């Protein structure tokens, strides 16, 4: 037991108190975990929207975030990431409080667009604040810790939602949405306790070419495109898994919640050891491995849905989404944040984080948008198609490695200053 405690302590560097406060605010994602796994079920099974429309509504979150993210990144560079992070949490709280009022497609699009505005502002401001306050040699561990906390929060939210949600009782979803809104308000108050980092002023005339400079960074732009494909074919498509598992295979809401919680457990257990193992190793190999694991996961979902009944299928889905998906997310969480930070000039950090976040938003928009219509036309065609896209993305990651600056191809070792 003593050796285990020593090992756990070795995975948690002595970072400033402000960094721990930032990590704590990531727990606000409990609210996201309450909604994301069940939004398509809520819109389709409770509010009666078609699968295609429900998937399009889910995609609207990404579209709105795609607009708000770059604006939030620019504002964070100008007035500070702390103010943007606080505003993002308040917007999310307002959006979640409005979800119970949805009764038709127009309302669903508007409310989820507001949620997307908050989500789009949250991650770039959070990432910029974390990067600015964390010592450079501890960035990999800090972003790995953030991934642990975020996934723990989302998993706990999904588990809670699985225990409470009942499609036969629409009021159970009202309870979930109002609980999520309350959680965001609580953590917005916590943000006020975080000390702001030192401002890095933009040189005269620099503000106007801020995003031009980011887009002209060819290796970074290529990474943003790759990350968009990865997120869309993994986590984006994953938002459609619950409705497929319930309606096509007969998996219950509780079992779906447990599958997502297993995913969280794997990430919490293995994220920090994988981040430590990744030190000094090639980042693109990690992303290619993530893509291969995701492809295997979708093929297992395809096989389980086609040949197994509810209980047996749920067990196989747990292996696919929980274990393989969790391992892939650990690899991704170990390399993305530090890679973006290493590529970004300090004065443009907010903008770099914003465009990196936009790749997530576009992925989460394209995944359910395209996948929703594929699922509606032929539920079993979606999973092998997604697996093929994942494998293509993995091959692209290896090609991209040659375009990255030599100094950022590998994860920085914790001993480097």
Would you write up a description of this structure?
By secondary structure, the chain is mostly helical. It has one domain: MFS general substrate transporter like domains (Growth Hormone, Chain: A, Up-down Bundle), CATH 1.20.1250.20. Helix content is 78%, strand content 0%. Helix 2 packs antiparallel against helix 9. The longest helix has 34 residues. The chain is globular and about 50 Å long. The relative contact order is 0.17.
What secondary-structure arrangement, pairings included, does this model have?
Blueprint: H1 2-10, H2 17-25, H3 30-35, H4 39-46, H5 51-79, H6 81-98, H7 105-133, H8 139-164, H9 170-191, H10 210-215, H11 218-238, H12 241-249, H13 253-278, H14 283-307, H15 310-343, H16 349-377, H17 382-400
Cα radius of gyration in angstroms? 20 Å
| CATH fold annotation | Growth Hormone, Chain: A
Q: What would the average pLDDT be, to the nearest integer?
A: 86
Number of domains: 1
For the secondary structure, the number of strands is 0
What's the CATH C level? Answer: Mainly Alpha
Largest sheet: none
Strand content: under 5%
CATH-assigned homologous superfamily: MFS general substrate transporter like domains
Structural class, by secondary structure, is mainly alpha
Uncertain parts: 204-208
- Sum up the overall morphology in one term: globular
Quaternary status: single chain
- Order of SSEs, N→C? HHHHHHHHHHHHHHHHH
Query: Distance between termini?
Result: 32 Å
Helix content: over 70%
Total helical elements: 17
The CATH architecture is Up-down Bundle
């Amino acid at each position: 037991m003593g050796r285990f405690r020593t090992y756990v302590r070795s995975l948690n560097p002595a970072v400033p108190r402000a960094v721990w406060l930032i990590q704590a605010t990531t727990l606000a994602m409990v609210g996201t975990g309450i909604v994301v796994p069940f939004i398509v079920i809520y819109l389709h099974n409770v509010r009666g929207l078609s699968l295609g429309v429900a998937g399009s509504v889910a995609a609207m979150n990404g579209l709105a975030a795609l607009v708000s993210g770059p604006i939030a990144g620019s504002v964070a560079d100008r007035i500070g990431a702390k103010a943007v992070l606080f505003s993002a949490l308040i917007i999310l709280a307002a959006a979640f409080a409005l979800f119970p009022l949805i009764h038709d497609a127009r309302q669903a699009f508007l409310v989820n667009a507001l949620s997307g505005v908050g989500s789009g502002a949250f991650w770039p401001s959070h990432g910029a604040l974390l990067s600015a306050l964390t010592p450079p040699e501890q960035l990999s561990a800090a972003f790995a810790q953030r991934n642990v906390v975020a996934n723990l929060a989302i998993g706990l939210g999904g588990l809670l939602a699985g225990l409470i949600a009942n499609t036969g009782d629409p009021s159970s979803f009202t309870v979930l949405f109002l609980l999520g809104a309350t959680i965001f308000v609580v953590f917005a108050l916590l943000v006020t306790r975080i000390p702001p980092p030192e401002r890095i002023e933009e040189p005269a005339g620099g503000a106007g070419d801020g995003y031009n400079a980011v887009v002209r960074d060819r290796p970074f732009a290529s990474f943003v495109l790759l990350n968009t494909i990865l997120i869309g074919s993994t986590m984006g498509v994953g938002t459609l898994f619950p409705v497929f598992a319930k309606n096509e295979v007969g998996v219950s809401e509780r079992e779906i919640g447990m599958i997502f919680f297993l995913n969280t457990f794997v990430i919490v257990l293995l994220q920090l050891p994988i981040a430590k193992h990744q030190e000094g190793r090639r980042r693109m190999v990690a992303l290619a491995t993530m893509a291969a694991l995701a492809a295997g996961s979708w093929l297992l979902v395809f096989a389980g849905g086609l040949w197994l009944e509810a209980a047996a299928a749920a067990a196989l889905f747990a292996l696919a989404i929980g274990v393989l998906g969790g391992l892939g997310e650990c690899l991704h969480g170990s390399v993305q944040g530090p890679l973006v930070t290493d590529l970004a000039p300090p004065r443009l950090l907010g903008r770099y984080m914003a465009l990196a976040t936009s790749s997530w938003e576009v992925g989460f928009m394209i995944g359910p948008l395209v996948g929703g219509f594929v699922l509606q036309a032929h539920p079993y065609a979606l999973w092998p198609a997604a697996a093929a896209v994942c494998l293509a993305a993995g091959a692209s990651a290896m090609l991209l490695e040659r375009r990255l600056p030599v100094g950022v191809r590998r994860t920085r070792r914790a001993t480097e200053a």
